[in-house]
Amino acid sequence: MNNLNNTKILLIICGGIAAYKSLEIIRLLKKNGVSIKTILTKSGTEFVTPLSITSLSQSKVYQDLFSIEDETEMDHISLSRWADLILIAPATANTISKLANGNSDDLASTVALASNKKIFIAPAMNVRMWEHQSTKQNIAKLKAYKYELIGPEIGDMACGEYGEGKMTEPKEIVNKLKIYLKNLKLKNKLKAIVTAGPTREYIDPVRYISNKSSGKQGYEIAKSLLKNGFETTLISGPTNLEINNDINLIKVETAEEMFQSTLKSLPADVAIFSAAVCDYKVKKTSKIKIKKQDEINLELEKNVDILDYVSNHNSLRPKLVVGFAAETNDLENYAKKKLGEKNCDWIVANDVSNGTIGFDSDFNEVSIFFKNKKIDKLKYNSKSEVSDKLVGKIIDHLN
Ligand code: CTP
Fold first, then answer.
1. Do 203 and 346 have their domain in common?
2. Which domain holds residue 156?
3. Which residues are 148's β-sheet partners?
4. Is the pTM of this model over 0.85?
5. Based on the domain organization, do 87 and 230 belong to the same domain?
6. Least C-beta-crowded within 10 Å: which of 22, 196, 255, 260?
């Protein structure tokens, strides 16, 4: 996407060797038509010059909290209001500490404190600094204050050491901002529903049939939707996971409960069915605990297929319906078959024959099958990254 013509970003550059990469961030954002204003901290001037920033951003670089000239032109509050979002890259351990503690002793920290916009931070520091307990605590605070973290990455550092603390590459940072900005431009808040986790089909009050689903992928998708501005409802079978309070979480156990909750949560603009719903339920659930017997025969009957029902509903069907397919073999054939039979728009399919991805893993590798026969591969990555990429595609589609 190249059209971000009406969007504005305030970039705060702190003092670190990665500051030179901020110039590339400016170049990429300008290429997409973004208007940029920049704040350069005092230590930032040791690494990049205001002149090089201005040459690329084609606008003024703000440096001093107490500059009469700057305050007359655009005071620090207006500067924080002007932007659609703020990006701090690189964010040093010192700036992170200031933000976590609400300090406002320079222009960068004052603007961040006064901001009513989303603030993205791309940390860059030595691995020991990143791993230090104080930094960890500061980052946890920033997350609680709803700052959005990008990176850092693991790799060789400028200081010669190796580990986590490298700033994420400019292209990756810009891609994340693009997803957020694109959704900001959508007029009304879009509504999303996600089903996740397993279901339990009770045999008696203490026994049930279920499956290995952890719900992790669905929870990560709900988080990505929320951070991209969707009003998000997560309908979840039993899991050990926690979720942000801003997500409307509906806890269910059985497929029937998941079905009823899904119907109650509609209409929506997009529905993502990532739950591993049990295909069968016990025909007659015993009200009392069944005692041991030599042989027991369970009679099973089919559960309602929630995806199929919603996808084929005349009035309730969301604009975009995404199904999942976890397969151990013939992935492409089954995915295409489900796409057609269940009448959904996309099927996100993964191969669960190898234990390192899919069920209960923190990682995934999926292929998205589209109605127009196109197939997109989202390569092996954390479930959170896979979700961000999937949600990026959802936003592109809804746009
Ligand atoms: N699904 C659903 N309700 C069901 C069963 C499945 O909503 N009762 C949804 C899942 O959430 C997923 C998709 O349908 O998005 C595919 O589910 P899957 O279990 O893989 O497909 P099935 O049609 O059950 O086929 P099979 O088990 O034979 O692979």
1. yes
2. 8-183
3. 120
4. no
5. no
6. 260
